[in-house]
Amino acid sequence: MENAVLQVKGMSCNHCVKAIQSSVGALQGVNKVNVSLQEGQVEVEYSSDKASLQKIKETIDEQGYDVE
């Protein structure tokens, strides 16, 4: 298992949290998604042989948020 903490800009409410959790959580190989609205962070636990960090970032970007 891999763990990544991503800085994400543009999150402002619980809708943002749910949008990221559901979209990233639906990716194959992603085990856990934790979104911290206060800190602007998304913590992801994933299996690197099934999901890539790049795909996770793209998925967040597709929801309308900026990943640093």
Automatic annotation (TrEMBL):
GO terms for biological process: copper ion transport. InterPro entries: CopZ, Cu-bd, Heavy-metal-associated_CS, HMA_Cu_ion-bd, HMA_dom, HMA_dom_sf. NCBIfam families: chaper_CopZ_Bs, copper ion binding protein. The keyword Metal-binding applies. It comes from the Bacteria. PROSITE patterns: HMA_1, HMA_2. One of its GO terms (cellular component) is cytoplasm. It is found in: Cytoplasm. One of its GO terms (molecular function) is copper ion binding. Residues 2-68 form the HMA domain. The keyword Chaperone applies. This is Copper chaperone CopZ. Keywords: Chaperone, Copper, Cytoplasm, Metal-binding.
